[in-house]
Amino acid sequence: DAKTTQPNSMESNEEEPVHLPCNHSTISGTDYIHWYRQLPSQGPEYVIHGLTSNVNNRMASLAIAEDRKSSTLILHRATLRDAAVYYCILRDDRDDKIIFGKGTRLHILP
Amino acid sequence: NAGVTQTPKFQVLKTGQSMTLQCAQDMNHEYMSWYRQDPGMGLRLIHYSVGAGITDQGEVPNGYNVSRSTTEDFPLRLLSAAPSQTSVYFCASSRTGDGNTQYFGPGTRLTVL
Question: Is B58–A93 a contact, with Cβ atoms under 8 angstroms apart?
Answer without folding.
Answer: no
